[in-house]
Amino acid sequence: MTAEPYGDSGPATEDRVTVTVHLDPSDWSRHLAAETALGLRDDPPWIPPVWFYDETGSKLFDEITHLDEYYPTEAERSILRRHATEIAELTAPRCLVELGSGTSDKTTLLIDALAAHGSLRQVVPLDVSEEVLRSSARTLAALYPSLRVDAVVGDFHRHLDRIPRVDGSTLVAFLGSTIGNLGPGRRARFLHSLAAALRSGDWLLLGTDLVKPVDRLLAAYDDADGVTAAFDLNALHVLNRELGADFDPERFRHRAHWDEADERIEMHLVADGDQRVVIRALDDLVLEVPAGGHLRTEISCKFRQASVRQQLLAAGFDTAAAWTDDAGDFLLTVARRI
Q: Are 282 and 295 in contact (CB under 8 A)?
């Protein structure tokens, strides 16, 4: 672990900003390799969605969030615009933690309201990307000169116990329906781990995408312009580069699939013929994909408001308030650690 000031914005920023690294690059690489090997040996095979987000994939995802078909980003933003002041008054936290923070773009709506309320003293963005965190920490410090910014480079599956302890309550924001990328078992374990990391009276702000007509869901994950398809296929280029795989991306096609039983979207890469792929960095692991077979690249679970409340309660959180956007597409829930 290393902690250091981020001081290239002048003395005032240097006094208020730290970046603490809990994620050793070699450890993270081993973890990803082990997860990927586990997934590729499964039936059907899958890969961790982290392989989407190289520079090209990140740009494609940003493009996706602006597509007409892709509603979640703007739906959640609209709820924050409308209810951020209520969230601030209800939770009045001294510390705001954002899990999977990225650039903290949407979170500024919340920070504005919390800063205006007057309780907030510290912002803790947590993400796996040190480079992104250093940039976002500098930006947040410049935007909010009254706040400390203590960035944490870590994995929210393994480093929730590194959330700073403060005098006063903490609000953890987990936005973007990122929790939908976790299946039921892993989701329950995550929520229990988060509850264990918090104290009674702390708060959780959770964003979840809601169940809706299947045609709208499929369109959101398979847009007419093919941006999502390019994003999905780019993961194969990343695996080739990072793990020495020999996928031929031109022999796969993107497919969005709705799993009715589990109420989730799955993104698949479907083989157009028998494929034999060797992944050299995974001890020459051989992946055989028959024609029409697929590699699952992402799950995105959809929720119902009652089930969100029940899952939170099972983990030790009591729902205090919940709002949807005007179309009823997305849910933002505030829950208190019991």
A: no
